[in-house]
Amino acid sequence: MTETPDFVGPEASTGSADTVETSTRSASVMGDAAPEAQPPHPEPAEGQPVETVMERPHPATPIIKGWMALVGLVFVMGRDVLENLDNRGEAFSVRNLGFVGGALGLYVLVTGIFGFFSWRFTRFVIDDRQVRIEHNFIQHNSDKVPFTKIQSVDVVQPFAARLLGLAQLRIDVGSGAGKTIEYLGRARAYQMRDYLISRAHGQQVTVQESVARRATSNALHDLAADERVLLRVPVQRLVLAAVLSSGFLVTLVLSLLTLGGLTWFRQFGGMVGLIPLVTGLFGIISRDVVKQWNYSLVRSGQALKVSRGMTSLVSQTLPTNRIQGLQIVQHQAWRPFGLYRVKMDVLGYGSGDADEGASDILLPAGTWPEVELAIDAVWPGFRLADIELHGVDRKVRKLHPFIWKSYRWGRNDDVMVATNGGFVLETKIVHHARVQSVHLMAGPIQRRMGLADVKLDTTAGLLSTCHLFELDEQLARRLVLEEMDICRESRRRDAERTALDALPAPVVGVRVEN
């Protein structure tokens, strides 16, 4: 078992809190928007040959795009045939089989012709300044992505594509929908990902020079010669974390209670009601185990890379300058085992796993040393234990008798930290340079007790708010006023560090004397 740090969760027992969240007054102090640091992109030297890459997607692309629709069609038609068999007592006749076979054959023929011409008139072009994805079948469309706008490039291998050794590239441009190249051979997708990231960081390299970096390229791992694995999460820990999660435990208890009640009253016909609950249990396992299978966090140049997935393998690139904040989560059931989950708020990414290529999980299940390692990978040199956390006044106990000790906050010149929670303990960390606005909030009961809340907003996202609960009103006002000066100074230092990182490395000369 692992000793749990005091600042992650409350020391008292948890329970339901009698909270008052009415907010009738909100004072907002807006700060300067944190500028996004753009990677340098030098112009090609005069006379330097410009490499232009022009390719079509893999010829098997139409098969991958159409197989799900084909499976759905077979399922619908098969269900209709079985329903007719049950209702009319008819056997499978040659006519029925001929109708089904003809419909499937016609579908395969039409989609095959359409897919072939769609593939034939689709290509992507990479020149000295941008990526161009051209679709010239029926409707002409050309998507252009300048290298200076590329934030990250992810390699996603859905199950069907993975079976055929194919993958797709998802190019994140920071806002709006990203651009997708579907599908390339697995090795070629890795090569083009590395090449585009190098060009996005201003490196004048050729495709062949980028290919030389890659050491392995297979269906299980994505690791280049100059990349370093920071940590891996074993599958046993993923299973343990999923089984001990609050969602799994609640669903399991409901399933057992339902099963016990039906058995007690001998209502065996109601067992069908267990199907949604059992499906929910498998859904949690799929989300927390299958999608995070073979998880690894890798240092890849100036960025981080996350590889994960059992059936669908995802290689997600994480530019650290786009990570707005982090959240450390610990369920009470995890605490005896010393397990934590680290989530992140990445500018331009969606939350959760709605998009296979963009997950908000930095560490699905790890020990405290692994949490510190993951945080250090995002903000080198930062240690959460070095920040002194302050509690709230004992009068807050009247409002939150069970969880008032979990309300803590602290800060240094770089980040603001806030902890809270009952059954689920949360620690949010927001970088001052990413704060967009600061709010002072107080409800009627809070004003009567001389209390107020402070909220620090970054970009819109799951972890977009760092909430400091139930502070003394005078302290809250002082924090709001001081925070804007701290944010401004933090952005200045961040811009200086970005400019310094953009400078070319010094050339070390060697003088030979005879």
What features would you describe in this structure?
The chain is an alpha+beta fold and 514 residues long. The chain folds into three domains: 53-216, no CATH class; 231-378, no CATH class; 387-498, PH-domain like. The strands form four sheets. The chain has a seven-stranded antiparallel sheet with strand order 8-7-6-12-11-10-9, sandwiched between helices. Strand 11 and strand 12 form a beta hairpin. Helix 1 packs antiparallel against helix 2 (94-120). The longest helix is centred in the C-terminal third of the chain and has 30 residues, at 473-502. The protein starts with 24 loop residues before the first strand and ends in a 12-residue tail after the last helix. It is built from eleven helices and 21 strands. The model is unreliable at 1-49, 350-355 and 505-514 (pLDDT under 50). Residues 13-27 have a biased composition (Polar residues). InterPro entries: UCP026631 (IPR014529), YdbS-like_PH (IPR005182).
What percent strand? Answer: 25-35%
What percent of residues adopt helix (DSSP H or I)?
25-40%
Largest sheet: 7 strands, antiparallel
- Integer count of domains: 3
- Main sheet: strand order: 8-7-6-12-11-10-9
- Gross morphology is globular
- SS-based class: alpha+beta
Rounded to the nearest angstrom, the radius of gyration is 27 Å
Mean pLDDT: 76
Distance between the termini: 65 Å
Helical region count? 11
Keywords: Membrane, Transmembrane, Transmembrane helix
InterPro entries: UCP026631, YdbS-like_PH
Protein name: Putative membrane protein
Pfam families: bPH_2
